[in-house]
Amino acid sequence: MFGTYYAYLAIAGGYLLNLAGGQIGHAAVYIVAYGLIALGGIALRRFSPWYFRAAGAALACSVLRLLQLALPVAALPFLLACGVLHVLVCLGLAGQRKRCGLSPALEYVLLALAAAQSLGGAVLLTGLADGNIFVFQNLLLAANAGGVIFLIGMVFDVFRTQKLALRSEAEQ
């Protein structure tokens, strides 16, 4: 029971650090955040295989973030790996809610937002060479706002699912 509590806490802490990393902008914050998400995903693999897959994607995000420091070309694979990570965590949370007989509607909204943010970031990176700075800045602002809303929603949803998982473990 306590392992479940700390695993969800690690995932929520990883998303909080990810949110803080956008404000600080330091690569080490992101690497620690993805490490926490991976640790939580490995601990929760008994609930859903999506968590274990998310742990692998989180480790890939850490490696790609390190590569991005040396090779700016690694920004696109990093964005796509982050999108895969967020989708996998959302699927794990949705699976946990389905097991308890509840509707995973919020998880599917977050899943769509994660996919849109990842694909939007990839489109922004490839469209940067277009040269229209005004459109690029507005799209970047919208993508960043969507990213912040997504991260806050994920922290909320992880804590909500944590409470549900602890309650179902206590009943068993």
Describe, in plain words, how this protein is organized in 3D.
With 172 residues, this protein is mostly helical. It has one domain. The protein is 87% helix and 0% strand. The protein contains 6 helices and no strands. The chain is globular and about 60 Å long.
Low-confidence stretches: none
- As a percent range, the share of strand residues is under 5%
Number of structural domains: 1
The tally of strands reads 0
C-alpha geometry: globular
Order of helices and strands: HHHHHH
Number of helices: 6
Biggest β-sheet, characterized?
none
N-to-C CA distance: 11 Å
SS-based class:
mainly alpha
How many whole angstroms does the radius of gyration measure?
Answer: 16 Å
**Level of helix content?**
over 70%
Brief summary:
Helices cover 87% and strands 0% of the residues. It has 172 residues and is mainly α. The longest helix has 39 residues, at 133-171.
List the helices and strands and how they pair.
Elements: H1 2-24, H2 27-43, H3 49-70, H4 75-99, H5 105-127, H6 133-171
Helix pairs in contact: 1-2, 1-6, 2-3, 3-4, 4-5, 4-6, 5-6
Defining key terms:
single chain; about 170 residues; mainly alpha; 6 helices
